[in-house]
């Protein structure tokens, strides 16, 4: 974490920062429709031809700190997975070239892994919308000095929808996120967005702000974000900027809170640092507490929980498995105490105006039926209702609608505005926009937990809806 190559990295990171700024406008938010699994390059199910593991512990921010590499053109990696999509995640650098990507034996695209500055954990290729089932990705080295594989991210169509982004440094690249995922259970997905050596300080020697996982963690539109950054900031070359720590921390909390998914942000106090003379507990943690208090964020007190257990921090900084268990447990207990997002019973009546988020001109207005309705609906507008628990399956949808024409439509979609279409409500002419009728629509069976998206065609008002088994 305390990197000796500070100067070299600082120059490199300045270049990355510029590239990130240039690229960030182009990154479109990923749709949140499905569960994903990271497959590390070390996974024995990956077939390699003329590729070898690089020395582990490269310390460059790789996923799980390792990669496989090839020097011969024509070398390849191949992986067979079950799901609907996959991403090829690797490093880009000046000694790398092009890679030909095949899906199910069909050439798809040549991706370019060349970059003047080193960039880690870059998703250089992704495909989605494959038919649910077994598929194979193959990446073949075309040119350049090296081809690397860091990880593959598989998308499957079983969809736990409460998304937890674990943001942090090398401590977050350890096992705590996976352990926290086990504690939270199957309705949650915890994704680790840790990058080794990174700082909260924008003027630190390796700011988290300048990494791809920082961008990706926001694009994922998480429901919950856990930030645990500060350990690397405490190093002398970074802590000279300590007066900026509170402001930078507050900025990061607000960055995540302002995402369209309006996540709950937790401030994890950095673990006890057993390095002699460090200032984590004495100086960093008090500022983390202040940042949490200034933003109304809940604190997860990892610092107190990891005191007096030097045996669980063998290199004085990084937790071993037992240390990661302590971190995951204190986080889980803190999140539970603060109230984890409740699941909504899909079979209760939902007032349409009680949406979690919306897009377009649609808004609540006075209705003739006491409870407000959604009106001012434009075509393409949508409203979102989070965390609906369908259990064994909904097959009908009642909608309380009104219109003076039959043009309006409501598409019931799952987990994104373009997600699975469960059914369509067709508008009926009730004589006026405030004369309501309950219209029942048969829908494709919906099971499990989903965010419900109602996507509109203009021409009707909606007062309430209710799924039926
Ligand atoms: Ca890796
Ligand atoms: Ca209503």
TrEMBL record:
Q: Which Gene3D superfamilies match?
A: Galactose-binding domain-like (2.60.120.260), SGNH hydrolase (3.40.50.1110)
Return the Pfam families for the record: CBM_6, Lipase_GDSL_2
Query: Is Signal given among the entry's keywords?
Result: yes
Annotated CBM6 domain residues:
348-468
Under InterPro entries, the record lists: CBM6, Cellulose-bd_IV, Ester_Hydrolysis_Enzymes, Galactose-bd-like_sf, SGNH_hydro, SGNH_hydro_sf
**What molecular function does GO assign, one term?**
phosphatidylcholine lysophospholipase activity
Please indicate which superkingdom the organism of origin belongs to: Bacteria
Residues in the signal sequence = 1-32
**Classification via PROSITE patterns:** CBM6
User: Keywords, A to Z?
Assistant: Signal
Record keywords: Signal included?
A: yes
The name under which this protein is listed is CBM6 domain-containing protein
- What species does this protein belong to? Paenibacillus nasutitermitis
């Amino acid at each position: 974490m305390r990197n000796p190559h500070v100067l070299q990295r600082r120059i490199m990171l300045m270049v990355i920062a510029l590239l990130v700024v240039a690229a960030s406008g182009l990154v479109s938010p990923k749709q949140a429709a499905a569960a994903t699994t990271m497959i590390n390059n070390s996974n024995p199910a990956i077939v390699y031809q003329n590729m070898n593991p690089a020395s582990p512990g490269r310390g460059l921010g790789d996923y799980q700190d390792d990669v496989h590499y090839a020097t011969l053109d024509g070398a390849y990696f191949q992986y067979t997975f079950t799901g609907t999509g996959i991403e090829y995640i690797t490093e880009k650098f000046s000694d790398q070239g092009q890679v030909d990507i095949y899906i199910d034996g069909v050439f798809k695209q040549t991706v370019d892994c060349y970059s003047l500055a080193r960039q880690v954990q870059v998703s250089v290729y992704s495909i989605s919308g494959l038919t649910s089932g077994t598929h194979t990705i193959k990446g073949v080295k075309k040119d350049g000095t090296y081809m690397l594989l860091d990880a593959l991210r598989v998308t499957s169509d079983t969809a736990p929808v409460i998304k937890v982004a674990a943001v942090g440094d090398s401590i977050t690249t350890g096992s705590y996120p996976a352990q926290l995922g086990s504690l939270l259970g199957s309705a949650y997905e915890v994704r680790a967005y840790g990058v080794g050596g990174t700082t909260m300080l924008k003027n630190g020697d390796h700011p988290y702000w300048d990494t791809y996982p920082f961008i990706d963690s926001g694009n994922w539109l998480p429901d919950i974000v856990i930030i645990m950054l500060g350990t690397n900031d405490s190093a002398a070359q970074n802590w000279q900027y300590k007066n900026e720590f509170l402001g930078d921390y507050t900025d990061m909390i607000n960055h995540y809170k302002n995402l369209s998914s309006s996540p709950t942000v937790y401030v994890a106090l950095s673990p006890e640092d057993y390095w002699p003379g460090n200032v984590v507990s004495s100086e960093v943690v008090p500022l983390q507490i202040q940042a949490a208090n200034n933003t109304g964020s809940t604190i997860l007190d990892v610092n107190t929980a990891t005191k007096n257990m030097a045996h669980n921090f063998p290199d004085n900084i990084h937790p071993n498995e037992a240390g990661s268990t302590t971190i995951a447990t204190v986080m889980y207990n803190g999140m539970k105490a603060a109230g984890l997002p409740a699941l909504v019973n899909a079979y209760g009546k939902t007032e349409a105006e009680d949406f979690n988020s919306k897009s377009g001109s649609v808004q609540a207005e006075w209705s003739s039926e006491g409870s407000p309705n959604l009106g001012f609906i434009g075509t393409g507008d949508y409203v979102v209702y989070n965390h609906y628990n369908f259990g064994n399956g909904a097959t009908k949808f009642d909608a309380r609608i009104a219109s003076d024409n039959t043009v309006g439509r409501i598409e019931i979609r799952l987990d994104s505005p373009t997600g699975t279409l469960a059914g369509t409500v067709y508008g009926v002419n009730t004589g006026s926009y405030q004369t309501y009728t309950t219209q029942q629509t048969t829908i494709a069976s919906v099971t499990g937990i989903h965010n419900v998206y109602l996507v509109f065609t203009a021409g009707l008002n909606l007062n309430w809806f209710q799924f039926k088994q």
